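Exercise: predict the structure of this protein bound to 2'-O-acetyl adenosine-5-diphosphoribose.
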Amino acid sequence: MAHPTPPPDLAAARAALSRARSIAVLTGAGISAESGVPTFRDALTGLWSRFRPEDLATPEAFSADPATVWSWYADRRARVASVQPNAGHHALVAMERAAHARGAAFTLVTQNVDGLHQAAGSGTVIELHGNLRRVKCFDRHHPAVTWDERETPPRCTQCASLLRPDVVWFGEALPQAALDAACAAAGAAQVFLSIGTSTLVEPAASLPFAALQAGACVIEVNPAPTPLTAHATWVLAGPAAAIMPVLAAP
Ligand code: OAD
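Solution:
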C-alpha cells in the first residue's frame, strides 16, 4: 500500500531540518501534556482547583503562605517524578543526535520545569524557568539536596531560610546566562522549532520572532493556533507526540 503523501508543510519542514547547519528548539508545556503533566493554563485540578497558578507561583505568595506554595510544588514534584517522557521528548533526542552526527548545531530551550527533556536523554537543555525537581533556599539560593518532607517548608541547613523550588516565579528575573544562550541560539538558527507553547509569556515568546527576524525558517507544532501561527514558515497542527517522531524520522 502506498504511503500517504505527507502534507506539504511536513515534507518541507523535514527537508529544511535535514539540511540545517543550526537548529534551535523552544518547548512549552504542550510537549509534556502527553506525559500526563497538565499544561500551565489547564485549569488546576483537584485539590488545587481553587487556586490560580499566578496566585501561587510568586515570591509574595510564598512569603504570605509558604506552606501552601511549598505543598503545591511538592505535589507537582511528585507528579513529574512519576511520569515518563513521551514520544515528543524522545524525538527531540533523536533529532539532536542526528544533527550532531552531521556536524550541525542543536540547541534545546525549554520553558518547562518538569525535567522531562533530561529524563529522555537530551544533552544540553537550556531551562529558562528553572526546574521544580531542584530546591534552593529563599534568601541565599543555597541548593538543597535533601530535606525533611515532614516540614512544609523545610529550612536551609546553611542559613536556616525557608526552602523553595528552583523555578522562576512571576515577577522574578530569568537566569541571565540561560536567556543569553537562548537568544544567541535563536539568532543563529537556520531552522527554529516551536513546540507546545502558547507563545504568550515573555521573553520566551519573542524567541521564534527573533529567529524569523534573523532569517530562519520557523516550524510550529501545536494543535491550536497561537500568536506565532500566522508568522511561522510551516505550521504542523497536532499533538507533539504524534508529529515529532515523523518530523525527526531519518
Ligand atoms: P501553556 O499552558 O500557556 O500553553 C500550552 C500550549 O501547548 C498551548 O498552546 C496548547 O495548545 C499546546 N498543547 C496542548 N497539548 C499539546 C500537545 N499534545 N502537543 C503540542 N502542544 C500542545 O504553556 P506554556 O506556553 O509552556 O511560566 O506557558 C509558558 C509559561 O507560562 C510557563 O513556562 C509558565 C507560565 O507562566 C512560568 O512559570 C515562569
